[in-house]
């Protein structure tokens, strides 16, 4: 492994549990891969622009018809896709906002999910154009996951899995950290569980 892309969607900086756990994972990865280069894309504290009309038009136009205007509109998209293409491992750390991904992570996905660039449409649906690679998502939630009253429904995980699969990334593992808003003891339990999960995943990773 030579390159890791870390996409962080938390706005909480050093207070972010998802980012803290991801940093623990990055530290462990550097131990086993000291030459690995890490690209940090912090969309939580340095948000990327949400798609506008120019980006949508340029994304839907055939590449052969791209002029200067389209190329400019796609600048951020191409930069983000380039980071993803260069990564041997994708690491996403994100909170859950209102049962799903934060708008900043949705914007990142909208930039990297481009017809004719990272996926194409076929008779059986969309086909990913990116090479598959391992991906890990660390998802932080203040409440407890479940479907019973008082628990938190998780629409983030299936959506993220489907979105990445659409562009060709099928090897996604998800660590869900729950009850983080219910006191230091719950946070400590989540961090302990995360340490065990990370150790298990590192033993399974293949590139």
Any overview of this molecule?
The protein has helices spanning 17-32, 53-60, 68-73, 75-86, 103-112, 156-166, 184-204; strands at 3-8, 37-42, 89-95, 119-122, 125-128, 134-140, 171-177. With 207 residues, it is an alpha/beta fold. The chain has one domain (3-204): 3-Layer(aba) Sandwich (Rossmann fold), CATH 3.40.50.360. The strands form 2 sheets. It has a 5-stranded parallel beta sheet, with helices on both faces. Strands 4-5 form a two-stranded antiparallel ribbon. α6 links the parallel β6 (134-140) and β7. It is globular, with a radius of gyration of 18 Å. The model has no long low-confidence stretch (mean pLDDT 91).
Shape: globular
Which regions are unreliable across 5 or more consecutive residues at pLDDT < 50? Answer: none
Count helical runs.
Answer: 7
CATH topology: Rossmann fold
How many structural domains does the protein architecture include? 1
Strand % is 15-25%
Briefly note the structural class of the backbone.
Answer: alpha/beta
Q: Name the CATH superfamily assignment.
A: Flavodoxin domain
Count the E strands.
7
- Residues in helix, %: 40-55%
Summarize this, please?
This protein has 207 residues and is of the alpha/beta class.
List the keywords.
single chain, 207 residues, alpha/beta, Rossmann fold, two-stranded antiparallel sheet, 7 helices, 7 strands, globular
């Amino acid at each position: 492994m030579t390159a890791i892309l870390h996409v962080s969607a938390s706005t909480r900086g050093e207070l972010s549990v998802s980012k803290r756990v991801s940093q623990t994972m990055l530290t462990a990865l550097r131990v086993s891969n000291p030459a690995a280069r890490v690209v940090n894309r912090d969309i939580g504290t340095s948000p990327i622009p949400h798609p506008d009309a120019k980006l949508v038009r340029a994304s839907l136009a055939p590449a052969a018809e791209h002029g200067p205007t389209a190329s400019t509109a796609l600048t951020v998209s191409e930069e983000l896709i380039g980071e993803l293409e260069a990564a041997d491992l994708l690491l996403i750390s994100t909170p859950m906002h209102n049962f799903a991904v934060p708008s900043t992570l949705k914007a990142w996905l909208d930039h990297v999910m481009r017809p004719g660039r990272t996926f194409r449409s076929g008779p059986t649906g969309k086909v990913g154009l990116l090479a598959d690679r391992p991906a890990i998502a660390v998802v932080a939630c203040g409440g407890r996951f479940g479907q019973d009253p008082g628990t938190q429904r998780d629409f983030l995980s299936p959506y993220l899995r489907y979105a990445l699969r659409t562009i060709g990334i099928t090897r996604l593992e998800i660590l869900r950290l729950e009850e983080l808003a219910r006191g230091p003891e719950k946070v400590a339990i989540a961090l302990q569980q995360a340490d065990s999960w990370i150790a298990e995943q590192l033993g399974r990773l293949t590139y």
